## 1
Amino acid sequence: MKKPNLNRLEYFVAIAEEGTITAAADRMRISKAVVSKQLQLLEEELGATLVVRNSRYLNLTETGQSFYEAARASVAQAEEAYEMAKQGRAEPTGNLRITAPLDMGVTYVSPVVAEFRIAYPAVTIDLTLSDTRFDPVEARFDIAYRVGWLADSANVARKLADFQQIVVASPDLVEQLGRPNHPERLAAFPFVEHRALPNPLNWQFKKATGETCDVKMNPALRADVTPAIKAMAIEGAGISILPDFFAKREIENGTLIRLVPDWALPTGGIYAVYPPTQFRSAATKQFAGLFAERLRNSLA
């Protein structure tokens, strides 16, 4: 049986990541004809169509997408092994793509990215901050940080910490409308709604005794990112519900007040989510370990 030509994996990975054969050829600094021929030979070797294309666009087939994930891991592992041998040490190199929610990313992830880049200058880091939940496989992220609750998927998730959801308001709003002693009174307050949540107006509170209370909030303002919601709450435009770690500083300095502290909302988690591949680069593993340590220290 003829052995597969593993060099073709690099051509295919470049095509998949660049989106066109021309761009892949530019990236590899070879002719378009060579890249196109290597793709043709690879598909013949596999007996499967990996891409569908016309004169302007190129998309991976379902088989192509699955093959890309395995090929990308193999190419990355080979590149890393080469760099380690060349440098004589197991130091992280290459590209690292990370995504995180905006609030968590600005406060917690960005400082660690800067620290990591200073420690490992051979790593190039691409950080995307958005409350949109990108799938790490489809969007090609090495690490996707999540805050809240995870949907079922084939991705690999590691829980880093728990957090509480808390109701907060500005001192001025509390002085104006009073301090509620029961969750049902929250419905009378203007509420800053986080429209990125699946059910942003309906909340169930629970007391340590087991008593529960369902509340439907009265929306006054809507936003789709947590920092904007916190800013509007600080200005007194309404009460809001925030992760405790994101309101910790404001509660300590008195710019926000926690309401109904004897009642709890469902606990959420902070997660690191990875593509379901066996291989993770040294950069991915090193960054993940550093961030987990820094997060624990910050939340302590």
Note: The two ends are 58 Å apart (CA to CA).
## 2
Amino acid sequence: MSALPDIPASLALVNYGHFTSMLLTAGRARGLARHLERLNRDAWIVFGQGLDEGIVRQAIRAAVDGKTEPLAVRVTVHAPGFDPRKPEADVEPEVVVTTSAPPQVGGPLKVRTAGYQRDLPQVKHVGTFGLFYQRRLARRAGFDDVLFIGGDGQVSEGSTWNVCFLDEDGTLVIPTAPALPGIALGLIQSGLARTGAQVQARPVQASELPSFRAAFATNALAPVRPISHVDEVEYKVDEDATARLTRAYESTAGERV
């Protein structure tokens, strides 16, 4: 097993911090302002202080300097001085930016449900063991990924993605159970709102899943991906709806870092 010399020890040894991931193309990212807002908001929740936007932008620019290809960029906020024996102590958060090739997005997802909810679901934090364990179990069972259901039977989110559904009348339905407010889903909502399309945010019970005509997974690195199955429920892959959601997402121009 090899070491990762560029990753601070506090990230490897202490599971406390938060992050955001974005797709950067030609130095621009859709929803960049939202990503920066997320980092600042979550820093207040996790560390009790905000982040300087200029420092975050500078760190991203340094990480992508000289790279012209599309990149998956992850901005992680951690605190080298954080001591789990004294978690109440004030600490100074720092930013680490890592880059990788964007993921290869395959065909429609086949997912299974699991009873699970992330800790502090409104924060994109680094406590990912539970969700990756659930994804592992799902994939070993022959599925592509996992969709979480709360103890009250409400659909919340996927392992690393938000979920939305298309109703029979064409309304996009977004579950309101506690979940991470995804950047990609927010951009889709904004784009649809500009066209006057019907969007409804409401509780979605697992028992309702057979009543929808289509389902989609969304995140910043794969903005619109159809879901073909949830457990035994099969959805028709609606190419027109997929294209409509993609256009809504892409109607927000990329912002320069």
Note: The chain has six helices and 14 strands.
## 3
Amino acid sequence: MVSLGEIRCFLLDMDGTINLGDTLLPGAMEFMSYLRSSGRQFLFLTNNSSQDGAHYVNKMQNLGIRCNRENVLTSGDATISYLSALRPQARIYLLGTSALEKDFRDHGFVLTDENPEFVVLGFDTTLTYQKLVKACDFIRDGAIYIATHPDINCPVTGGYIPDTGSMIEFIKASTGKVPKVIGKPNKEIIESAFRKIPGVSKTEMAIVGDRVYTDIRTGENAGIASVLVLSGESTEADLQKYGVTATLVLPGVSDIYRELKKYDINKK
């Protein structure tokens, strides 16, 4: 059994784990403050590639959480990290928002709609039919096909809107091709976290989240510890439902805070 006190980097889901909408969950402030004061590192991990990291920094800061751009890893960031390791400055046909386009350009990639080496599908809230036509043509012609994350729907006020996973199904129906997917629950987003925070071993990293089929499965797929918190979407019964094993199941992040504090006191 992993000791939470030995974890040096926590990968944190946000909504349902740290906050619910515009409200911090009980103990979240104490937990986040203690991570900093005890010298532990953290990354906020999100599959949403329609927003850049600065959006989530502002969101957390508005809730009173101290963080900066280095504390956020989106699926868009992870895809950029993956491609930078695979083929820097590649020619890419990108289906994504202007924020995602800027991130790719800032990292040296050439965004083009002529003879791309890669087609990258993000959560494109500016999607047009013509973009989909071009993407399908390039994929049929042999461009390497990558998607930032697999979520079918994105929750919004009043319901859901189609997310990248729905676009994946559209392109699959037309081309018969499926992409390499980077975001949760795939291990590639964790590999990007290791590149972002070097020097941390697998036994020193844990993912914390409220969704069994994304957050906890990510830990299982990547071979790192996982903590299911019951402050959001999932119940403990969902572990059996989805066939996933969590390292620990706790009511919320306040319980992690108490365990860390107890570990550090006993260690002195």
Note: The two ends are 22 Å apart (CA to CA).
